[in-house]
Here is the input.
Amino acid sequence: MTSLAIRQRAVPLWAVVVLGGAAWLIAWFVNLPAADWLAYDALRLDRGSHLGDAVAFFLYDSPKVLLLLAGVVTLVSFLRSFVSPNRVRRALAGRGVLPGTAAAAAFGIVTPFCSCSAVPLFIGFVEAGVPLGVTFAFLVASPMVNEVALVLLWGLFGPWVALAYMSAGLAVAVVAGLVIGRLGLERYVEDYVWKIRAGSAIGEVRTTLEERAREAWRSTVDIVRRVFPFVLAGIAVGALIHGYVPTELVVAAGGRDNPLAVPALVVLGVPLYSNAAGTIPIVEALLGKGLPLGSALAFMMAVTALSVPELVILRRVMKPRLIATFVAVVASGILLVGYGFNLFVV
Amino acid sequence: MRLIEVLGSGCQKCRYVEQIVREVVTAGGIEADVQHVTDVAEIAARGILATPGLAIDGQVVAAGRIPTREQVAAWLDLA
Here is the structure.
């Protein structure tokens, strides 16, 4: 493991980075021929058969997604060590409604956030005087639009899909923030939240480049280990779809002609608890089978932005009415994105 | 006697931090009271926005990440 190399002081940081980068590039380019050879030559599966295509897809996609994930998460974790939630909070407090909401959604892309931190984060923001709508814009954007999702989308479908997803996600977050801010729902935040007076934050000193790099690698190992099962499960489902589900079925059930496709995919997505990394292989297979982009994006947004475990966690700081509003507003936004893309983007 | 508090809602990472702390305490042979604070209001009141957090003798030393054993040892003046 590279982590061992980093721990040895004898090897300088740049050497580890260069060697790691080279190994990554080689693996990236060897992947497709290796997967083809394994599936069609070593395992003697027929090209074009259901099983052959499903196996080849799985063998090719698992390393590809994991490579992308490892590479990008390492880079972003490193850059991210310069942005802390505390800085974001300070930047957001005392801003106007529209600039604050937009900034919160944008910060959501780069800020580390997992649903287990949702509650302290929510309390911290509200307590610092960040308006409720702005806080929600952040809560919506953060899990939905993140670097993992964007780079996987970019790598698998090209820049346009990634940019479309990012703009749509930011739009949903900003609109949801503005609507919730306008509704004046402060009384549906649990009462104790308003009574908390947070102490001063910590003054951490860790600035050396090597420490940031080591920290980045450690969180990469952690994140990849955590999302690995989701990704493999996602790819397995994707491979089954790729090999066995007939294109006509996907087009008929999820295509533009079925007006209920988008809401059905959103409803399907909410109880599925996964992150962007696990959802993308499924979306990849469905897109390949002719699912329109809007429906695919809506499904992915529903899976990442609305999840039952996160709602359960948020219940500790929000009364049911506020949670219901949150779900309704975000779900409507996602529906609009789905229909919008299906109608206006070919 | 040192007071060490792991602040987290019981997620995987928070349990990992507690494990690291206990290992360092045992290895360093010091007397310490290791507690796991799971009350979200309490965590937020400490100024922690991202879990897991770690406080030593009431002072928050890390938040939103898993510290290394060496760092924990240094905070406990064991290094």
